[in-house]
Amino acid sequence: MNSTFFPEGARPERPVVIAGPCSAETLEQVMATARPLSDRGIRIFRAGIWKPRTKPGGFEGVGVEGLAWLKAVKQETGMQVATEVATAKHVYECLKAGIDMLWIGARTTANPFAMQEIADALQGADLPILVKNPVSPDLDLWIGAMERIYNAGLHRIAAIHRGFSSYDKKLYRNLPQWHIPIELRRRLPEVPIFCDPSHIGGKRELIASLSQQAMDLGFDGLIVESHCDPDCAWSDASQQVTPEVLDYILNLLVIRSETQTTEPLSQLRKQIDECDNNLMQELAKRMRISREIGTFKKEHDMTILQTGRYSEILEQRGQRGEQLGMDAGFIKKVWEAIHEESVRQQLELLK
Ligand code: PEP
Ligand code: MN
Fold first, then answer.
1. Distance 168 CA to ligand 1 centre (A)
2. How far apart are CA 140 and CA 124, in angstroms?
3. Whose CA, among 65, 193, 338, 339, lies 20 to 30 Å from 17?
4. Which of 306, 275, 5 is CA-nearest to residue 129?
5. Is the pTM of this model over 0.85?
């Protein structure tokens, strides 16, 4: 695969920004968002008109009617317009309407049959396609989806990193797992990568820091959800920002030169930071559960220290650590410290 998303030898200045509402709701909302974005220099407008929703009953998009609104944006502002396609029918409608750019959503990338249908429908067309990562952290599935589009003859392909689902929702709506897009860059260096901080964070407060991290990792662009009245948005209200706030966020970004950002150490350190963050969250969860156990023991008049259980933990964790290529003694030391803190917290409950 050899993406020609950016013309050869002419990567534009970073970040290339795509912005617009999660969903097109009305012609007025689309125009009221597009105008200020265009005034602030955004050249590519996004809006979903078919919305894949996790549960039935939510707003599933305005459908084909919205294509005319995107055409109006294009006509009035000169911006390029992009929307999400999930079926062959969506593709035909978009091609007919002259939409400039299409993206494939995370739920669709995860489904090879759907991807093939879309690729077949695209055959013979020539427009840039952005492929979001699949919901699950599976790099081959992501690359496979891009290959299907590429094999259909569309070579202007870019990837969008929008984070990965996890059962346990924590700080992020979708975990960034930065090592996955980093590995994508290593395997397919010519495929531009956009970061979608809106869907990773799920909260508008996280957009700035996620965008900065993406820039520090050498990402090419950002796709950010922006709405003229975010709190009243029909979908993803908590993660959208006004065009004014988006402009403010973009102006604060520090763009380091390519030579610095591809420095291997900084990428590896980002991964270490992410590992530590995950360890910390798991540790906090472990302590919470331990306090629940403490409450149970208290209510049932049980002793806090149950020696059998303690030895079993140290033994099993040591063995497991060894299987994972670590030193059993080191692992025992770590779990002694964790257990000690657990006991201390359970004792606190008795005070
Ligand atoms: C979107 O971009 O609005 C969207 C539905 O994204 P994702 O496929 O990443 O969930
Ligand atoms: Mn959205």
1. 19
2. 25
3. 65
4. 5
5. no
